[in-house]
Amino acid sequence: MSLPQRPHRPDDGAFIVGTGRCGSTLLTQMLRRHPEQLSVSELFAFISDLGNQIPRCFPPEAIDGDAFWAIVAGVHPRQNLLLRHGLRMPEVLYDFERGRFEASAGVPALALTTLPHLEADPFGSAHAGDVDGRLDELEAVVRGWGRAPAADHYRALLGWLTRRYGRRAWVERSGGTLRIVHRLIEQFPHARFVHIVRDGRNTALSMSRHIGFRMALIAFQLVEFLGVDPFDDPDRSEVDDLPDDLAALLPEHFDAEAFWAYSLPPALCGHYWSGEIIRGLEALDALERDRVLTLSYERLLNQPREQLRILDAFLSGPEAAEQPASRAWIEGCLGLIGAGRSAWSELPERERRELEAACAPGFEALAARGLRAV
């Protein structure tokens, strides 16, 4: 069976990109209430197993529906290892009490957040609809698709979800997708991009305390020491080079207490933030100006009506953004605004200095483009 016709214009899709821990989740929660935009949450974060299997998500060759389903609905090792050890990220929305999947056996990537986010009542229902039923419905559709480039499969998937949930266009947001924005630009040549930026010092501090980012950065270090990905390759020929604190985090020895005890200084996360900002901005520089909108998280908190009007005009068009439904959407989002967290200024003096130095290159890259991260 061939892929279905795309139901919308090719430029209807948009991505919210950022370094992660930058306020993009708040935008996703707001857009879930939008009358026209379909808020798709954490698709690429979870199908890439927290960013550790990105090339597998974008194979160079054409694939069929079965192969695509294995990517988007696979039970991937890192995120499910965390769940088995009681380390559940706030972003994981799957309801284990009502659903058929168990943490001990693993949950398909799509069912962790993407489908529960779509199924849930955006105004606060306690339950997230019929996630398992929606997964089965989608599987029956996707497995019938013929061979095509991965980009066509993604567009077809997002188009199907847009129709299924009665919206005009989709907006995908995954934590940390600034690191893959060059791939998204290549795969979605007509998409628009909302880049949300937060003070790198607070972002880095939040990263250092977040389960998903800790796991991703730990996994990167394991690969660096071992020369192989220990979640995919049994080779342990270089295991003697591992420090004891990292050896306790190999999948066969993983321990939740050791996970939290592992030192992940905010300055290390600050270096990561700067690198992602620099590379992400370089990729976004190649786009036409009307395809990129940069939003400040701090401004969103302090000037929500103005910033949401700008966002809605970018996504829906200036005329649509002035309609009563859009104005009602903005007013309805104000209750989601809270105070920003992660006060980097409260760190000990030495840690503050190290963190500021680590984030300086990222701030400089933003300033060079007339952008601010505060």
What does this structure look like?
This protein is an alpha/beta fold. The chain has a domain at 17-204 and 267-336: Rossmann fold. The protein has helices spanning 24-31, 43-47, 54-57, 65-72, 77-84, 109-112, 114-119, 131-142, 150-164, 181-187, 200-209, 211-226, 244-247, 256-261, 266-284, 297-302, 304-316, 318-321, 324-333, 349-367; strands at 14-17, 37-41, 169-173, 192-197, 292-296. A 5-stranded parallel sheet has the order 2-3-1-4-5, with helices on both faces.
* Widest sheet: strand ordering: 2-3-1-4-5
What's the alpha carbon Rg, rounded to whole Å?
20 Å
Characterize the largest beta sheet: strand count, sense, and whether it forms a barrel. 5 strands, parallel
From N to C, what is the helix and strand string?
EHEHHHHHHHHEHEHHHHHEHHHHH
Determine the strand fraction and express it as a percent band: 5-15%
Highest CATH level, the class of the domain at 17-204 and 267-336: Alpha Beta
InterPro entries: P-loop_NTPase
